[in-house]
Amino acid sequence: MHPDEPTWTSPTPDPDQPRQVRRILRLFRPYRGRLAVVGLLVCASSLVSITTPFLLKEILDTAIPQGRTGLLSLLALGMILSAVVTSVFGVLQTLISTTVGQRVMHDLRTAVYGRLQRMSLAFFTRTRTGEVQSRIANDIGGMQATVTSTATSLVSNLTSVVASIVAMLALDWRLTVVSLLLLPVFVWISRRVGRERKKIATKRQKQMAAMAATVTESLSVSGILLGRTMGRADSLTRSFADESEHLVDLEVKSNMAGRWRMAVITIVMAAMPAVIYWAAGVASQLGGPSVSIGTLVAFVSLQQGMFRPTVSLLSTGVQIQTSLALFQRIFEYLDLPVDITEPEKPVHLDKVVGEIRFENVEFRYDDKSGPVLDGIDVTVPAGGSLAVVGQTGAGKSTLSYLVPRLYDVTGGRVTLDGVDVRDLDFDTLARAVGVVSQETYLFHASVAENLRFAKPDATDEELYAAAKAAQIHDHIASLPDGYDTVVGERGHRFSGGEKQRLAIARTILRDPPVLILDEATSALDTRTEHAVQEAIDALSADRTTITIAHRLSTIRAADQIVVLDSGRVAESGTHDELLEQDGRYAALVRRDAQLEPTR
């Protein structure tokens, strides 16, 4: 047994299951018209199919014994037509139900993706990327059979069972009672099996999510570089093998859970025709009511026609129980509280001037932790520049992320042109604030596609102008495919400085009036930093700029410099004013000067 696997316990009913089932049914509500058509087709198909045993009875009891060739031909033609109509109806209902099921899956995928797009940055800092991908791919993908065919199968089989029982009663009620004696036991067994598989499915999906996270992290470009340079490739392979081995155990358990009990049901149902023949023969020999050959054959045919959908119904019940585990994992994401929301009546600014104010700002990640920022009061005039410096962990990046609402303040407010950023509509905020960070992200696409992510309708001339301003155009033009060059996973075909200049070009194309520079040059060597800094200077011109500085030489010309210490403003002023104070900033400048020759 896997060391993390809990001891197996007997399945218990889930009190929340009825609410979950109702919620699943609501997913199909927009398609109730199509589902009604499917229901009609299913009912019609089931009713047509049960006519075959009655036609067979007439053939055996009337047409053949009496030598009525015309009646025999007519009845045989009826059986053929019944099969044709049933098949045509089956194809139509499969087409409609599959379309509805795929639309429901599309709705679920889109809802989960849209929900995650609205989550704050804090959610993604504490959630593994592979876990998110697994919910969208594996969990929703695992529900495909349920949402595309289960509903149709349920209605079809239920209709067939009911119609068959009615027809069997019409033929012989005594044989019908014998046939149905064990049905409640079968239902009880299938429910127990379903609960077992649901529990195993929950653990299986968690294990699949863990594997997906491992693959995403270790097989990315960064993961491969780290694994090989640290000599951990074999260790990672062994770790993945252990994860996969655990998944094998869970898959086997999932498929074998209740398999013997379901096999017993199948054996009993397969033996029922023999029981019926035996019961009819014994009753006749003991002087009981006799049953005609036609009636007996027709009854067994109906019985078998009932048992097949009955077994399918029981299997469907087990499948639904298993799928509830997948739905539960999806609903967990759909029910995540959204921290960053647009107000009911958002403010839209047609023209953004760019004044930023931090008014008594406080921020903490949760109620249990202390404040990361406390009592921040800073104003950045439109077109002005603010530099924020301080030791690692002082809250510099967090402060800048409050402006584009990557986080929301927990006290005080941040305003843009006098309007609380929480009151602005998302479109205004996205157009107003551009962010260039140390962690440059590029999509696995061409250079042009990466740039146009900021402005989808940008012309080639606009791309060239932005790239020239960022001092990266000449390099792009020198590549064999130019702007059609694919940048590779996370832009690994380009150097750090080149990626930063691509990010700057992308932001120039966006043309935001407010610019956040979060240590955009901290990971670069001095020569590359100089080229990138020239691009940043071009980008910053005539914009309100907030710079999170690592190298203080880059922010000496800032209109205002704020020194953060443990989330509070320790000092503020211009470069010269702060040097005269000979406080924390002056100490940072001296430390920076000592480190500069080693860079």
TrEMBL record:
UniProt-annotated location(s): Cell inner membrane
Q: What is this protein called?
A: Putative multidrug export ATP-binding/permease protein
Alphabetically ordered keywords of this record: ATP-binding, Cell inner membrane, Cell membrane, Hydrolase, Membrane, Nucleotide-binding, Transmembrane, Transmembrane helix, Transport
List the GO molecular function terms: ABC-type oligopeptide transporter activity; ATP binding; ATP hydrolysis activity
Read off the SMART domains from this record.
AAA
Q: Which domain of life is it from?
A: Bacteria
By its UniProt entry, which InterPro entries does this protein fall under? AAA+_ATPase, ABC1_TM_dom, ABC1_TM_sf, ABC_transporter-like_ATP-bd, ABC_transporter-like_CS, P-loop_NTPase, Type_1_exporter
**Which EC number(s) are documented for this chain?**
3.6.3.-
Topology relative to the lipid bilayer, per the entry, is:
Multi-pass membrane protein
Pfam entry (one): ABC_membrane
Q: What are the ABC transporter domain coordinates in residue numbering?
A: 356-591
Taxonomy of the source species:
Bacteria, Bacillati, Actinomycetota, Actinomycetes, Kitasatosporales
Q: Which PANTHER family match?
A: ATP-BINDING CASSETTE SUB-FAMILY B MEMBER 10, MITOCHONDRIAL, ATP-DEPENDENT PERMEASE MDL1, MITOCHONDRIAL
Listed under GO biological process in this entry are:
oligopeptide export from mitochondrion
Q: Give the protein family.
A: Belongs to the ABC transporter superfamily. Siderophore-Fe(3+) uptake transporter (SIUT) (TC 3.A.1.21) family.
